[in-house]
Predict the 3D structure of the following.
Amino acid sequence: MLKIILHAPNPIMPFCEPARELRIQNTPLWLHQRNLLAPYTTREMELKQGERLQPVREESIVYRDNLYFDELYITAFMKEAIKRKRPARAAFRSDDPAFREHALPLSTSYTPAGSLYLADLWYYPNGPVAGVEPLVIDLQAREIGYYHVPTYMGDQSGDLVFQVPLRSLIAIDSWVHVFIADMVFSQFARGARFEKRLNENLGFKLKILGKAVYEGRQVLECSELVKVGKGCVIDPSAVIHGPTIIGDNVTINAGAVIENCVIGNNVNISQDCQLMLSVIGDGAFLPFRTALFMSTLMENSMVAQNTCLQMCVVGRNTFIGAGSTFTDYNLIPTPLRAR
């Protein structure tokens, strides 16, 4: 199958880079796309903005390189599209809660079509042609809370929730979409898929219980849920709860607490660091008592001691000084910049 990549040249501020160069789940977006499409494609072609496509007469998949999708979504899309044997374009229902709440705001990539929104992902059985049918893949969204607001503070708004999809597709048009792709569509989604499988698959449940008993650990700490790479040095007093993925040559010192995180290669996590629902890029250094909650830290960055980041996206090669606090609460009475 031929893979045709359409470039999205617009830089994502404040990173000043196109979406394809940014890291989602600690992997460059272009590499993530290539890895997921590798089982379907044998060769590829790239088209820059304004460049015309030469006629081709073979099975093709076409996508814009600012799209983030997961394996479950692309598998469902390709299976249904190939089954139809007709040109198809990925689409969302306007009332899909995950799309409506998290993907559509701030976006510029979707094309309205009645009650649908079309994404820049196509399948052609005999090469690109005019006229395609929209193909809606259910994202299987479920409501999951992340903050319980005290009644006296939020008597009208209620609890704060995310619409978490079990299948993910989102266009990266803003730094906010990097946050959504990393946190809601990946970290929360991984936990939701784990809970769903645990509730529906008795064999999986027994496998995890057996592994925990064999290793003498709590269920969330067993090796089935905490994947550790090669050459890691982890202090026995560190607390690591899954689902968590730890890369190669990672050092985790005494008193660190890690819950539902993705940690890259060559990362140094010092004493008493607190990491929850975060993505830590390759080569990052976190000195003592650094705290991250629902934040993305891209590669080769350092967050100094006694610093707290909440719901942040930090670019590569960044230094944040000691004692800093980046809260998720807007203290200044002006709108937050999303672009």
